[in-house]
Design goal:
Blueprint lengths: L2 H15 L1 H13 L18 E5 L2 E4 L4 E4 L2 H4 L8 H12 L11 H14 L3 E5 L2 H16 L3 E5 L31 H5 L1 E4 L4 H11 L3 E6 L2 E2 L5 E2 L2 H13 L3 E5 L13 H4 L5 E4 L10 E5 L1 H4 L21 H16 L1 H25 L5 E3 L11 E5 L11 H5 L6 H13 L3 E2 L4 E3 L6 H20 L1
Parallel strand pairs: 3-15, 5-6, 5-7, 7-10, 10-11
Antiparallel strand pairs: 1-2, 2-3, 4-12, 8-9, 11-12, 13-14, 14-16
This protein binds pyridoxal-5'-phosphate.
Length: 459
């Protein structure tokens, strides 16, 4: 099993099978830094370029039909281009609605109310990206508490915004590094990290810094950190600690929102945060994000509080097409909740178990994360890992990203190209099942994994 040699072979084969995308990448690089605008999507040797997408599939510039588990960065829960949203948007555009007005549409109230009803929060403000939503939530927390420190989880990604760019990627010493240049010195000193789902570490952080912590932000389902659900016990302790120390408790539901039920996953855990952030799915394929939460905190960006927090700009905030797409999608999910989530979860489970078995049949140790727990019975998210030791529990971002524990390159590079050669697109070792994925798609994925396993075995 020589992964280095295999990666070279896969890369050469990819280059020969995706020639038009290669040309497009060369053109792109003349104008765009690295040929695009999102580092994760610019994988090596170059990304394939899509020309159209429908349901579970994407067609690319080399006329391949590719089975896609990335699904719009986990946003497309109904698959690509779902008719229910497409037709609503076409109709709206024909009626003179949808494009930017810069005026406050009634649609904002309609969707805002729907979102609050589903999540069980008091007030909402919309913005255009998850990164902005988490940044504004943190600014609200600082203004509300009069404290500066931000506590986040090591391995937690809350977007490319200055208050969250620390402890995202695993490095020497763990999740402690500042992620970018160009940040103010204060912002890097004022971000603390704690270990995911580790109550002792959390207690210690609050013991040491409690009087200075403005907020604790956490994903109830770790996204980039490994598709791992938080334990209800931890959440209870975290709620109690934030309460006792007067810190705002923020749930980042940008991946988990409407992914496991037609609400935040907080509904399943039955724990109330002070603020929550939503994005991805709620935009129905359009750029939309939101901060929702307690009125007494949210009001700090309103005129009655002198707009103390300037969460009030954005040329495209609450864009009408995004609101319309989002509202259409959320209404659809609410109407079909009973049908959608158990089916998505069952397909996710079939994929996780099937993949572990396929790799095992070739003598390769592979473990999936994405399994639910007592609170989240069904999960449509899957990540494949290649731990070195059979006894490793894939239950922390450290286990998922420490190259001494797992073969990270095999997941991120080798598997990715091996599956693309079978016309299956995955990111971070797989991705998200959508309602558009069928049993036939799962068989396609299994056959692709079988081929990938053979190649890894042969080296
Ligand atoms: C948990 C989480 N929070 C925040 C963000 C940032 O959202 P956006 O990419 O819309 O800015 C992401 C994006 O992947 C995310 O996964």
């Amino acid at each position: 099993m020589n992964d280095e040699h295999l990666l070279e072979t896969l890369t050469q084969q990819y280059i020969s099978e995706y020639p038009t995308s290669k040309e497009l990448q060369e053109q792109a690089k003349r104008y765009l830094v690295d040929g695009g605008s999102h580092a994760l999507r610019l994988f090596g040797p170059y990304p394939f370029r899509p020309v159209s997408a429908s349901g579970s599939r994407v067609r690319d510039a080399d006329d391949h039909e590719i089975l896609d588990f990335w699904q719009g960065h986990y946003a497309n829960i109904l698959g690509h281009n779902p008719p229910v949203i497409r037709e609503t948007l076409i109709q709206a555009l024909q009626n003179g609605e949808g494009l930017q007005t810069g005026i406050t549409e009634a649609l904002q109230t309609e969707f805002g109310r729907l979102l609050l009803d589903q999540v069980g929060a008091e007030q909402v403000r919309f913005t255009t990206s998850g990164s902005l939503a988490t940044m504004y939530a943190m600014m609200l927390a600082r203004a509300f508490t009069g404290k500066r420190l931000i506590l986040k989880v090591g391995g937690g990604w809350h977007g490319a915004q200055p208050l969250a760019l620390k402890g995202v990627h695993f490095g020497e010493g763990g999740y402690i590094h500042v992620e970018s240049e160009g940040l103010s010195e204060d912002s890097t000193a004022e971000i603390l990290t704690t270990r995911y789902d580790d109550p002792d570490d959390l207690r210690q952080k609050f013991r040491q810094w409690g009087d200075r912590i403005s907020c604790f932000i956490v994903e109830l389902w770790m996204g980039m950190g490994g598709f791992i659900p938080v334990t209800p016990e931890y959440l209870k302790i975290a709620r109690e600690l934030t309460h006792r120390h007067g810190a705002v408790f923020i749930f980042d539901e940008i991946i988990s929102g409407f992914r496991f039920c037609a609400s935040g996953v907080q509904r399943l855990y039955n724990v109330r945060p002070d603020l929550s952030t939503f994005g991805k799915i709620i935009g129905g394929g359009m750029p939309l994000a939101a901060v929702v939460g307690r009125e007494e905190i949210m009001r700090l960006c309103g005129s009655a509080a002198g707009r103390r927090v300037r969460f009030d700009g954005g040329t495209f905030s609450a864009h009408p097409a995004a609101l319309l797409a989002g509202k259409t999608l959320i209404e659809y999910l609410v109407r079909n909740e009973e049908k959608i989530y158990p089916r998505l979860g069952a397909l996710g489970q079939k994929i996780r178990l099937g993949i572990e078995e396929i790799f095992a049949s070739h003598g390769i140790l592979a473990r999936c994360t994405g399994y639910g727990n007592d609170v989240i019975p069904d999960s449509s998210l899957v990540m494949i890992h290649f731990p070195y030791d059979d006894r490793t529990r894939m239950s922390s971002p450290e286990a998922v990203w420490d190259p001494k524990i797992c073969n990270v390159d095999r997941r991120e590079k080798v598997l990715k190209l091996a599956l693309l050669l079978e016309r299956v697109h995955v990111v971070h070792g797989l991705g998200a099942v959508s309602t558009a994925h069928s049993e036939e798609d799962v068989e396609w994925l299994f056959a692709a994994c079988d081929e990938a396993a053979k190649r890894i075995k042969a080296g």
